[in-house]
Amino acid sequence: MIDNTTQDTKGLSIKDGWIKPARRCPSPNQNKRPQDEISLLVIHNISLPPGQFGEGYIEDLFQNCLDRDVHPYFEDIADLEVSSHLLIDRQGEIIQFVGFDQRAWHAGVSCYKGREQCNDFSVGIELEGTDDTTYTDQQYRVLVNTCRQLINTYPELTEERIVGHCDIAPGRKTDPGPSFDWQRFKLMLSDTCK
After folding, report:
1. Mind listing the pLDDT tens digit for each residue in 34-47?
2. Which of 21, 46, 130, 140 has its CA 20 to 30 A from that of 176?
3. Residue 36 DSSP label
């Protein structure tokens, strides 16, 4: 098992692959990592229905119980088996779907520096948002503290190994999109080291 227990980056701690004080919402869409390795962090965005926030449908999707009759968009995605390790909603709440020691199904067809199958060695973090909607201050703060806690826990994970979904699946994915302020994120992340 690839877990070290670490504590405390702004009130966060990781124990047995779960971050506290995140709300747990286990997804069946996970399996064992082929190796005990966490060396990449992938930032995504998601909103369901597209452009709408706070409805709870992301949890339904990751738990395979999305009701296809609620919205026309759901008809095409209700049967997907996908997940992410974490979701940070618009208010900054963290919801964890998959333990970090397990492989979540978030990256799909992907490649990082010539290495394919990024799900095998990455942690996926979804931000509730869209490519063109400004992320909230709370999301940046919680994302930075979460990333710092993950870096402190998993030695192969570094600041330089944090990417967008668009970076590992170019031409197929665009998230977290132009609305994600990478400069702001990186400055905040480097400030947490001080």
Report:
1. 999 999 999 999 99
2. 21
3. S
pLDDT of residue 182: 98
Nearest partner of 123 among 151, 90, 160, judged by Cα: 151
Q: What is the DSSP letter of 142?
A: H
pLDDT at residue 192, as a whole number: 76
Residues in the chain: 194
Alpha-carbon span 121 to 118, nearest angstrom: 6
Residue 134 in this model has a pLDDT that exceeds 70: yes
Q: How many Å apart are CA 52 and CA 54, to the nearest integer?
A: 7
- Dig out the tokens for 19 from the structure: 């971050």
Catalytic pick from 59, 126, 156, 160?
126
| Sign of the CA dihedral with 115 first, then 117, 118, and 121 last | negative
Q: Any catalytic annotation for residue 126?
A: yes
Q: What pLDDT, on a 0 to 100 scale, did the predictor assign at position 193? A: 65
Helical (H) or strand (E) element with 112: strand 111-112
Which residue segments constitute the domains of the chain, with CATH numbers given? 6-191 (3.40.80.10)
Evaluate if residue 8 carries a pLDDT over 80: no
**Helical (H) or strand (E) element with 130:** none
Query: Over the stretch 143-182, which tens digit does the pLDDT of each residue have?
Result: 999 999 999 999 999 999 999 999 999 999 999 999 999 9
Question: Which two three-digit tokens encode residue 152?
Answer: 């402190």
